[in-house]
Amino acid sequence: MDLEELKRIQIECAKKVLQTDDFTEVRLVGGIDLTFEDPKGNPTRAWASLVVVDIKTLKKVYSHVVEGTVDFPYIPTFLAFRELPLMEKVYLSAEVKPDVVFIDGQGVAHPRGCGIASHFGVKLNCVSVGVAKSRLFGFYKEPDVRRGSWSPLTYRGRTIGAVVRTKDNTAPIFVSVGHRISLNTAIELVLKTSMYRVPEPTRLAHNHLQWYLRNSCK
Predict the structure, then answer these.
(1) Taking the model in full, what pTM does it have?
(2) Which ranges of the sequence are coiled-coil (predicted)?
(3) Position 217 pLDDT exceeds 70
(4) Which of 9, 104, 137, 167 is 20 to 30 Å apart from 76, CA to CA?
(5) What is the CATH number of the domain that holds 48?
(6) Three-state secondary structure of the chain
(7) Which residue positions form the known binding site?
(8) Which residues lie across from 174 on neighbouring strands?
(9) Domain that residue 76 falls in
(10) Is 194 among the domain residues?
(11) Statement: residue 218 has pLDDT above 80
(12) Is 191 within a domain?
């Protein structure tokens, strides 16, 4: 494993990220979630779930699960090389493709500007948003406690994401551009699809995957 080569791949990926709105309409928003048989194991059996919701109703219109083997170790800031192959598999094999995909991870809010959400968007040429539950990189001030409040996530004077309050008096989430979308639109879509702390596409993808493992996987 050559981490310097992987860093080079991430830096090249970052150069291809488009941080402007490159779409006409958003009707369907998807969320992808992964889980592992052995989170610390390598290799390990793993599953990826895609759930697509209607942006007007926030109701699930499609769900899909795939299984595979993950054979790259967990290394901070190199998450894409561990999880992207299975994410790609669930997306490409889905019968319904969302207009925007929320990824549980970082987009450009990454030390080399290409977290898993950006890597996913660039590789598959789709609109993607990083929606993470914790900060990986950058600095911020806590936003107001009211839903809809947000503060910029910055590094060296540049805004790389947003810290967004999706529910009153609840911990914020970290939103960043994945690919082919502006940060303002990403924030707008996250708030529009959030009933709880985590936006419905990724929340339902997680819930569907847990249901699948309980009921369909032996």
Answers:
(1) 0.95
(2) none
(3) no
(4) 167
(5) 3.30.2170.10
(6) CCHHHHHHHHHHHHHHCCCCCCCCCCCEEEEEEEEECCCCCCCEEEEEEEEEEECCCCCEEEEEEEEEEECCCCCCCCHHHHHHHHHHHHHHCCCCCCCEEEECCCCCCCCCCCCHHHHHHHHHCCCEEEEECCCCCCECCCCCCCCCCEEEEEECCEEEEEEECCCCCCCCEEEEEEECCCHHHHHHHHHHCCCCCCCHHHHHHHHHHHHHHHHCCC
(7) 33, 104
(8) 132, 163
(9) 26-215
(10) yes
(11) no
(12) yes
For 169-202, write each residue's pLDDT tens digit.
Answer: 999 999 999 999 999 999 999 999 999 999 999 9
Per-residue confidence band for 216, with pLDDT thresholds at 50, 70 and 90: confident
54 CB burial (10 A radius; 0-12, 13-18, 19+): middle
Tokens of 22: 């490159």
What is the tens place of the pLDDT at every residue in 121-166? 999 999 999 999 999 999 999 999 999 999 999 999 999 999 999 9
Residue 3 inside a domain? The answer is no
How many structural domains is the chain composed of? 1
Residue numbers belonging to the annotated binding site for Mg(2+) = 33, 104
And the tokens for 55? 């942006």
